[in-house]
Each structure stands twice: as C-alpha cells, then as structure tokens.
Amino acid sequence: MPITAVEKDLDALTMTITADFPVPVRRLWDAYADPRQLERFWGPREWPATFTRHDMFPGGRSHYVMTGPDGESAGGWWEFLDVEPPHAFEVLDGFAGPDGQPAQDMPTTRMRFTFEETAHGSRLVVRAVFTSAEDLDELLRMGMEEGTVSAMSQIEEVLDDAGDRTPSRPARSQLLNDTQVRVSRVVSGSLEDVSEAHRRPDLLQRWLLGPDGWTMPVCEVAEEPGDTYRYEWESEDGQQRFGFTGELLEAQPPHREVTSEQMIGMDGPGTTNELTLTPVDGGTLLSLVITYPDRELRDTVLGTGMVDGMEASYARLESEVLAAR
C-alpha cells in the first residue's frame, strides 16, 4: 500500500494522509485531473464513484455519486478553491442530496492535495481541515478515515494502467447513468488553443464537420450566456442538410461551457451539453457530458455512430487547426 502515514490532530481539527508513488508528479496529478481515472479510485473499493462533472480550475465544481454493493447511493461535491498544476489543489468537500444539491445539514471539509517530487517518484499529501470538533467526530464515525485510506490504496492500479498513460486516443463514450453520457478525448493542443477553436466561427468551420464529405455553411456562435447559436451542415453534393440550435447557458472560458441543443425542425426536448477542457500531459482533455431527456433517446443517438463522427472532427482539429499553431 502506498500510504506511509495517517496523522490526526484533534486539537487542530486536521487529518493528514501521506502516500508515495513510483511515478512522476505529472502522472499522479493527471490521475486527479481526469475524471475517467479519478472515479476509479475516489471512494472506498466497495463504493465506486461516477463523476458527472469535474471542473479543475478555481471556482469550478465537481459532482459525483458513489454506489454501494446493494445499489444504494451517496452523492458528493467539490468546490475548487485553488488550483496550482501540477503541485497542489484545494477543495471544499461536501455531501449531496438525491437531487445532487449540497446537503445543508451535513458537514463540509476543506481538503488540500499537495504533490511533491521525491527521489523515487512523487508524494501525495492530503490534509483535511474540519470546521468543528463535532464535525470531525461525526465524519470519523461515518468512516471517513477508512474510506479515504481505501480510496487512496486504489491509485496504484490506475497509475499502472498503460491505457491511462496514452497521451491521445480516439474519442470514447461512457454511460454515466440512465440519461447522461460522457464523450472524452485528449486533444494534442494547449488549453487556450483548443478553447479558441471551439469559439471562433472561422476555426469551427474548418474542423467541426464530422465524417468527410460535409461542409458547415452556417456557423453562428453564441458569445455570452443567454445568446443563441445555430450550426448547419450540408453534404458536398448539396443533397442533405441538417443543423442544431440552442442557447449558451454558462461560460467560464477557457475551461467550461454549457449549452442547450435542439435539432432544427424536430419537436420535443433537446439535450444539455457540458464541455470541460482540462490541461493534461500530452495536450488538453476534452470532456463533453450530454444529458438526454430519457434513456431511449440517449441510446438512439449513440447508435447513429455519433462518437465516430466526433472523433473524425477531433482528428481534423488536431491535424488542420492546432498543428498550424
């Protein structure tokens, strides 16, 4: 087990856990920055987590649900107070109710994660600060120490996975629950360049085309929350045309953008798309969480080959836009 020390200071209301790993600091940092990796070890082994949001920047938030062996669930959230990649980040950690909102009647904890280089790899120091002796007692009774130790003992398995060390690979989808899917890919480009390529019409029209054989004659970008956007695509032979429209709901450039989406000419509810961009080794992790109105529509859309079309666009983004930077 990589954990070398667990120290509790009841007077200072703190608990500090130290663990050593035989990998570079950046590799360990990326395990926390990438929700696909983080959810493989955050939470006790018997209570795996699913992150439906993970915005690793100051002011960003994370939402997750841990699922127990009998199907029971427990929600949680982080609010990022400080992020200093790849050396440290600090969060306010709390519990969430069934609706995903913070549980006001449950204690919160301030946690700082520090990543240090050692002669043999890297060291992770996690220091939790509690708001009162009562909160500390309650969380310890609930098994916080055992749960944190169990969670950290799984990090080695993620760090040893060669697949998680691959800088870039085709876009892949992951079902998060009955209505949400996450499409993710590491794009070989800086955070700023990838973000700009999602906001400039002249760049979007060069890469956001899906499979070969399509053009994007209409690209009206929403610049501020409340603005609407409209994208239309046409086959090169002019025989087919389709498009989407929606509203920019939230924008925290260059890290996060949330939009609604409705196919032009189609009735019924659309989707909500949450795009998060995170710097990682090898480029920028692009994570798109799509929320559908129901499971049936989600599965229908995925069955159209949507992810393959997205991969074609991301490959074009790398080769025709970012490579020229």
UniProtKB/TrEMBL annotation:
Q: Residue ranges of the Activator of Hsp90 ATPase homologue 1/2-like C-terminal domain?
A: 23-159, 192-319
Membrane spanning stretches: none
| Domain of life assignment | Bacteria
**Gene3D superfamilies on file:** 3.30.530.20
Specify one Pfam family: AHSA1
In terms of InterPro entries, this protein maps to: ASHA1/2-like_C (IPR013538), START-like_dom_sf (IPR023393)
Family statement: Belongs to the AHA1 family.
Q: What is the name listed in the Swiss-Prot or TrEMBL entry for this protein? A: Activator of Hsp90 ATPase homologue 1/2-like C-terminal domain-containing protein
